[in-house]
Amino acid sequence: MTESQHTLLTAALNDGIEEIVVGAVLADAAGRVLLLHRPDIARDGFAGLWELPSGTREPGEMVFETLVRGVEEATGLTVTVVGGYLGQFDYRSGSGKATRQVTFAVTTDGDSVQLSEHDDYQWAAHDRWDSVSPEVQQILQDWSAAHLGNRG
């Protein structure tokens, strides 16, 4: 991993980031990535979007704690391995906060997804990645090039 948890948190603070979201790229053996669908009635400004499993950092929480908690809360899956750092992007949350999403590759204890706040999920091959934001598409393309040898 090229970025330490401390470095990521310090950089975000220095950049005026108010909220950190930690995302996970979780793939199956075929290289399909788990995407979650936000309900169309969500009130956070991201209704109807497909996204990576993620969690918002709580005060005092380290990045990996957020990652593990966020994946488990969103999917019911337990993170067993935190892999490499895949990148970050900034955006304004639905409440207007300057937000940074940092993303890591992860492995979990299975693939039997149980949703909590999302209304659907899919194991998406590369030809379905256009259903996510351009920023997430870039992270997935970079992950694919590094981990799937450009086949994804």
UniProtKB/TrEMBL annotation:
SUPFAM superfamilies in the cross-refs: Nudix
Catalytic reactions of this protein: 8-oxo-dGTP + H2O = 8-oxo-dGMP + diphosphate + H(+)
PROSITE patterns (alphabetical): NUDIX
UniProt keyword Ribonucleoprotein present: no
Domain Nudix hydrolase: 17-146
Keyword tags: DNA damage, DNA repair, DNA replication, Hydrolase, Magnesium, Metal-binding, Mutator protein
Keyword Hydrolase part of the UniProt annotation: yes
Domain of life: Bacteria
Cofactor: Mg(2+)
EC number, UniProt record: 3.6.1.55
InterPro entries: MutT-like, NUDIX_hydrolase-like_dom_sf, NUDIX_hydrolase_dom
Family: Belongs to the Nudix hydrolase family.
PANTHER family: 8-OXO-DGTP DIPHOSPHATASE, NUDIX HYDROLASE FAMILY PROTEIN
Protein name: 8-oxo-dGTP diphosphatase
Organism: Saccharopolyspora cebuensis
Lineage of origin: Bacteria, Bacillati, Actinomycetota, Actinomycetes, Pseudonocardiales
